[in-house]
């Protein structure tokens, strides 16, 4: 199994730029508003005419699937300014390295690295990757699959405000959203291992990263993080390697 040497420094996998899943194991996507009703005076000036406009449904993500067994180098392009969601399935995570390489031949981001603390065989990871030409470099001795979804930058009108509180749980990195959030929010997390709750804007850029460390909490004790202020469309990443739960509540 070959390894490549890159000119860029290795990016921290657990708390680097990454990106969110729902309690039932699926992503929760806000449905577009079906219609918007307004009233306007008609041309004769004798009354009001009801005008209905249909909200535009955002484009579907551009999906690309890579599958293989062993070490592979695959070229791909990103065409949108929005976030890129990587859905990874591994037959065996030990010794596997998955890296995205940019046009300069440098490491753009690391999706999986060998010898790390991630002992998962499936994960969702969100990345803020600019449009351009890239390569997916996989070093592995076993079967693997990477599904890449390129999302557009979603507008507020296409994402409904969520019903609070938001509650997430899992045992591997997962992505939830998108949601429209506005104001202050409190976040609590529970995990027996190191984890992070990350908030990303509509482009996938990381806005907040709330870290949870079991070294400073008793077993079964929740961590109440400092309040955060979020406004706009966002995605939420739960980057955990063991059983975890996260709750997001609005200010009273």
Structural class: mainly beta
CATH C-level class of the largest domain is: Mainly Beta
Number of domains: 2
How much of the residues is beta strand, in percent?
over 45%
Rounded to the nearest angstrom, the distance between the terminal CA atoms is 55 Å
In short:
It is built from no helices and 17 strands. The chain has strands at residues 36-41, 48-53, 62-69, 72-78, 84-90, 97-101, 107-112, 122-127, 132-139, 143-150, 166-170, 174-191, 195-201, 206-212, 223-224, 228-240, 244-250.
Q: What do you see in this structure?
A:
This protein is mostly beta strands and 252 residues long. The protein folds into two domains: 62-150, Jelly Rolls (Sandwich); 156-250, Jelly Rolls, CATH 2.60.120. 0% of the residues lie in helices and 50% in strands. The protein is built from no helices and 17 strands. It has strands spanning 36-41, 48-53, 62-69, 72-78, 84-90, 97-101, 107-112, 122-127, 132-139, 143-150, 166-170, 174-191, 195-201, 206-212, 223-224, 228-240, 244-250. The strands form four sheets. Strands 11, 12, 13, 14, 15, 16 and 17 form a seven-stranded antiparallel beta sheet that branches. Strands 3-10-5-8 form a four-stranded antiparallel beta sheet, with no helix packed on it. It has a four-stranded antiparallel beta sheet with strand order 4-9-6-7, with no helix packed on it. A hairpin with a 6-residue loop joins strand 1 (36-41) and strand 2. The chain is globular and about 50 Å long. It starts with 35 loop residues before the first strand and ends with a strand. The model is unreliable at 1-26, 28-44 and 48-55 (pLDDT under 50).
